[in-house]
Amino acid sequence: MILIVLGVFALLIGTVLSKQPQPQTSGLGKIFYVVGPLLLIAGVLTSCFKTVEPGQVGVKTLFGKVNDDVLYSGLNFINPLVKITDFDVRTQNYTMSGSNEEGTIKGDDAIRILTADGLEVVIDLSVLFNVKSAEAPNILKEIGTDYLDKIVRPVARTAIRDNAVSYDAVALYSTKRDEFQNKIFKTIETSFASSGLQLQQLLIRNITLPASVRASIESKINAEQDAQKMTFVLQKEKQEAERKRVEAQGIADYQKILSTGLSDRQLQYESIKAQQAIATSANAKVIIMGSGKNPVIIGGN
User: What does the alpha-carbon distance between residue 227 and residue 232 come to, in Å, rounded to a whole number?
Assistant: First the structure.
């Protein structure tokens, strides 16, 4: 467009200069006559082509009226008078966090909500979404290019607050967290769809409970761990007691077998075997056989 304007000015200047009586001025006017059309042609050619970058679409506006046709990535031929507004249709991440370095808006931008039990809970949230290519003209007409501030941020924060009132703080932190996330996902998805946006994923990155609630949860967890430890100790003691009982029963059974199963002849036979082993050993000894049941061994090493 700038080249077109310059070309028009060059033609006007050439017209004025060519009417001057001085030869030098007239010659300069002829030069402008040549440069002017060249600038016009170059301006028209460059204005008639628009390159849309990958991951973007272009929306055409002519004298304030938005065209419903969308320009996709690549080289596009357009009316040189048309204004092109680019929209990013790739996945975008809008994060609201209490950390100064993580959120889209610097500073503490976490969402503070009141739960069903009247406690204040702080939530860090990330919203992953994209602009629907075919809906880009409607977004430009009805919302504008600042859809992050007009749609994404307020819709996400309102959905969080509206759904949190149905849950207690502890349930929101633990057992009902997935259920809560699914509910706000459906709420935000519906609102986004009506505005030309597509919700891809919703991430509850952190839930911060009041200090008093955190202390009670930690106390409960410690008590549960102590109870589990005591249960383990009792089970171990029971197993040890059972082992000792089985061992004592085995000893008693062994003694009973010895007392009832060994006869005098069996004992005499075992004694003879022991004497034979001693007599045949290499150690020097003297064996005195008496009238008793067992011999007397002298000098055995």
Answer: 9
Distances (CA, A) of 227 to 160, 214, 224: 37, 20, 5
pLDDT tens readout for residues 113-171: 888 888 888 999 999 999 999 999 999 999 999 999 999 999 999 999 999 888 888 88
The model's pTM is 0.60
CATH 2.40.30.10 given to domain 91-209:
no
